[in-house]
Amino acid sequence: MKEGEVHISSFTSHAYVLIALLVLTTLSVAVTGIHLGAMTVAVALLIACIKVTIVITYFMHMKFESLFLRLMITGVFLLFALVLGITFIDYLLR
Q: Distance between CA atoms of 50 and 30, rounded to whole angstroms?
């Protein structure tokens, strides 16, 4: 975002984001009640990553930032996914 540039979000978009976050929170609580074995944590983390993406995109205004910054954040998410993948592989092979 350029210096001094202002982005005003509508109440409607904030309402949609609120509804999406509430639905995903309810889903993550519901997943804990379902017996999925080792995949329960993986599904809960996937839902949490989706919620983080929504928050970063709308509340931190990443959709208005430059391509370079968006690529850097995508790289951080990919690194996080790699670390989680290695951790789950280690957990499953013990």
A: 16
